[in-house]
Amino acid sequence: MSGAAWLTRSIRLVLLVALPLGFALTVKHFLSLDNLYAIFQSFAFLGLLALGLSVTMIAGEFDLSVAAMATVAGLVTIKLVVLGPVAAVLCAVMVGTVIGIGNAVLLPWLQISSLVTTVGTMILLNGVGFWLAGGRVLSYDNFDVSDALDQTLLGIFSPRSLITILCFLLIAAFLQFTKLGRDIYASGGHRRAAIQSGARVGLALVVCFAISGAFAALAGSLISLSLATASATLDSTTLLQAAAAAIIGGVALGGGIGSPASVATGVLILTILNNGLGLLSASSTELLLVNGALLLIVVLLDGKAGQALMDLRRKTAQTKRRNVTWQG
Asked: What are phi and psi of 229, to 5 degrees?
């Protein structure tokens, strides 16, 4: 592990411990079961988006359409909920998976960056969302499903948050223990060398974007059932939050580095930070500024700035040892 990577990993662990302690000392009831439940409810939605996005990032690509996909999936779910909530969720996830596969198929055909391809998909999905909504907020009146998804389990969890945790575990096992998972890392680490060594790069990219689309759809579908409503306008910062969580969690922008466990850490850091600041009555603008500043610090420390700090620390330690030896 490089010095910069060690530094950013240490910072993530410090933040994961320091933020809850700091807010516990300054915010009344921050560590109450109700508030911890609220944190994991936020984790349930953002975690699925960040997890799917991080898989494409590990493969050296980037899916800009995840937030729009979540919006469309929520609308599809509410439209089809008359078929039953499970069937509606499955249909929405199937739509997300097909669109994700379409994104992957377009990459070699168009010979352009996934950023360009998925921004086109994002614009298309935004249009589809407004068409599905018809200028209205869609809703349904069966709150039994919402109550079931959000019922409290073990004090701080819900079925929705446990579904997200299960998805993290499944993707961690897939990336760690399957050949295709290793091909995904190879695709992001050094694609040309991966192709020459026989890695199934094409299939890896298809699977990555399918996972990204499916998880984005699942996130949008579950949140729409939870709220019993869906609209064509999702929070404009959703994509930024998902990308920030993945990057803060240690997923390299260049690909080949990252893990579901580290992404979960990044998501928890952001949800704890936003929850605590919200309890302190911070505005949405202030939340965005703090999130952006944290992301910038992590990116800088993960690059040359972090390496320079570690080199300076190493040189300082060597100088001290020489002085001690000389004095002795």
From this structure: -145, 160
Q: How far is CA 220 from CA 66, 83, 225, 301, in A?
A: 10, 18, 9, 33
Q: What is the total count of domains within the chain?
A: 1
Q: At what angle do helices 238-248 and 260-279 cross, to 10 degrees?
A: 120
pLDDT at 312: 41
User: By C-alpha distance, which of 299, 315, 263, 311 is closest to 2?
Assistant: 311
pTM: 0.88
Residue 327 resides in a domain: no
DSSP 230: E
C-alpha distances in angstroms, 160 versus 41, 68, 138, 150?
7, 20, 21, 7
Domain that holds residue 198: 3-319
- pLDDT tens digits, 42-98: 999 999 999 999 999 999 899 999 999 999 999 999 999 989 999 999 999 999 999
